[in-house]
Specification:
Blueprint: H1 2-7, E1 19-23, E2 29-34, H2 35-45, E3 48-53, E4 60-64, H3 66-82, E5 90-96, H4 101-116, E6 120-126
Parallel strand pairs: 1-4, 5-6
Antiparallel strand pairs: 1-2, 3-4
């Protein structure tokens, strides 16, 4: 994901590819062109070149305004916040409803420790006969 975030920044003049596929700020394809032509367009319109897809031939770049780049970065940040964290640990605790008071207090302390460590806690209570 760090690669993806870095992709939405101004590339400037450091473009390692000779031939690029360029998309204008409105999303219309301008076709394949030489790096120098793309830089000339960038300067003429006061826009910035941003790498969209690197793993295709030729790589896809888009001409964007600073505002568009900022909005894309905000969208990526929102997606990152919304996606579940891969490092979340889930703890599970199961006990009977006939548990003794001191045993219950011990389990409550354990649950409190897990919550402090930001673990997800699942508690299952079985009904005693």
């Amino acid at each position: 994901q760090s690669k993806r975030k870095a992709a939405f920044g101004s590339v400037g003049r450091r473009i390692p590819y000779r031939i690029l596929h360029v998309i204008n700020q409105d999303g219309e394809s301008l076709g394949n062109m030489h790096r120098a032509e793309a830089l000339r367009l960038m300067d003429e319109h006061g826009l910035k070149l941003v790498l969209l897809h690197e793993n295709v031939e030729p790589p896809v770049y888009r001409l964007m305004t600073g505002q568009q780049i900022h909005e894309e970065q905000l969208k990526l940040a929102e997606k990152k916040k919304a996606s579940p964290k891969s490092g979340v640990v889930q703890k599970e605790l199961s006990f009977s409803s006939a548990i003794a008071k001191n045993d219950l207090e011990t389990k409550i302390k354990q649950i409190a420790l897990w919550i402090e460590k930001k673990h997800h806690v699942k508690v299952t209570i079985r009904q005693a006969k």
